[in-house]
Specification:
Blueprint: H1 14-18, H2 28-41, E1 45-49, H3 54-59, E2 73-78, H4 86-96, E3 100-104, E4 109-112, E5 120-125, E6 128-131, H5 137-147
Length: 148
């Protein structure tokens, strides 16, 4: 991405990505996605992770195939990092059928723009990763209900 691409985004500024490594390596498609998510969700979203080098990715325990390595993924969280806001964000992501969707106990949500909309879904329960499908979306909402 370049600086002028941010003219397309009402809710996100380059300075937000500069705090976490810069915007230059982030693909425009994932920024388009997070802008759509923000409009659907209706509340502020913080981007907490974007492009990662292999070293940065390894330091956070990321997959060797992580979309963060290619700039096609973001980690986001509701601006008000209160667990009661997560179900609304998750529901927005489910409605949009994002390519990759990972939910984490620490409260962040991974999104990416892979083309397989049903093949990359996971919840990480205190270090243990569990895959889920659209059919088990109710389990996802129950999970957030139990930790809120």
């Amino acid at each position: 991405m370049n600086l002028s691409d941010f003219d397309d985004y009402r809710h996100f500024k380059p300075s937000e990505l500069e705090k976490i490594g810069g915007y230059e390596q982030v693909d425009k498609s994932v920024m388009d996605l997070v802008e759509q998510v923000r409009r659907d969700y209706g509340k502020r979203i913080r981007i907490t992770r974007a492009f990662s080098t292999p070293e940065q990715n390894a330091a956070v325990g990321g997959s060797e195939y992580s979309k963060h390595l290619t700039g096609f993924a973001l980690d986001i969280t509701p601006h008000l990092s209160e667990l009661r806001y997560y179900p609304g964000l998750v529901m927005s992501l489910l409605r949009m059928r994002v390519g990759g969707l990972g939910l984490y106990t620490d409260g962040h949500v991974h999104i990416d723009t892979r083309s397989d909309v049903c093949g990359a879904r996971w919840i990480q329960y205190h270090g243990e990763k569990r895959e889920w499908t659209w059919d088990s979306a109710a389990d996802v909402m129950d999970y957030y209900g139990t930790i809120a």
